[in-house]
Amino acid sequence: MDIDARGPRFGAAVTTVVLAVVLITANPWLLAWQTLAFALGAAGGVGRSPYGWLFRRAVRPRLGPPVEFEAPEPPRFAQAVGLLFAGLGLVGLALGPGWLGLAATGAALAAAFLNAAFGYCLGCELYLLVRRVAVRVE
Fold first, then answer.
1. DSSP labels, the chain
2. What pLDDT was estimated at residue 34?
3. pLDDT reading at 137 higher than 80
4. Is the pLDDT at 129 greater than 80, yes or no?
5. pLDDT > 90: percent of the chain
6. What is the Cα–Cα distance from 82 to 77, expressed in whole angstroms?
7. Distance separating alpha carbons of residues 135 and 138, to the nearest angstrom
8. How many angstroms separate the CA atoms of 77 and 66, rounded?
9. Is the CB of residue 9 less than 8 Å from the CB of residue 114?
10. β-strand partners of 9
11. Do 122 and 115 contact (CB within 8 A), yes or no?
12. Average pLDDT, the chain
């Protein structure tokens, strides 16, 4: 079942703010929260993430009906990619080296910002590329 395309973009906007604050403060606890949000989105889909829940409960009722839908698999894969980068960032911020934490968090921030500001989901594009390569290999 396709999902409202505005939900993942809203989640990316919240993620952008959270990751920007992480970069400014180098707060591993806040990055741990974002890592958990990515993990829930990767495991259950973007609708199961905290930001998906917030969109569904507080934002979507105030918007008109959706006009654009997307398949749930690419955003879910993007959450898994975000989880990978946030996890690396968390290791770097909590245990060192600090540059790893900042670089991985910065990469996740860049991807989230592209989705939030321009609707361009790097993780979704990576999903499509992996699918194309997988089909050719079979």
1. --EETHHHHHHHHHHHHHHHHHHHH--HHHHHHHHHHHHHHHHH-GGGSHHHHHIIIIIGGGS-----EE-SHHHHHHHHHHHHHHHHHHHHHHHS-HHHHHHHHHHHHHHHHHHHHH---HHHHHHHHHHHHHHHH-
2. 98
3. no
4. yes
5. 95
6. 9
7. 5
8. 22
9. no
10. none
11. yes
12. 95
Q: Judge whether 72 and 5 are in contact, CB under 8 Å.
A: no
Here the tokens at position 6 are 């505005």
Amino acid at 63: L
Phi (first) and psi of residue 27, to 5 degrees: -85, 110
Q: Are 87 and 35 in contact (CB under 8 A)?
A: yes
Kindly give, in sequence order, each residue whose CB lies less than 8 Å from that of residue 72, ignoring residues fewer than 6 positions away. Answer: 1, 2, 3, 45, 46, 47
Tokens of 14: 């919240």
At 7-19, the pLDDT tens digits run 999 999 999 999 9
- For 60-109, how does the pLDDT look when each residue is reduced to its tens digit (9 = 90+)? 999 999 999 999 999 999 999 999 999 999 999 999 999 999 999 999 99
CB 121 within 8 A of CB 115: yes
Prediction pTM value: 0.92
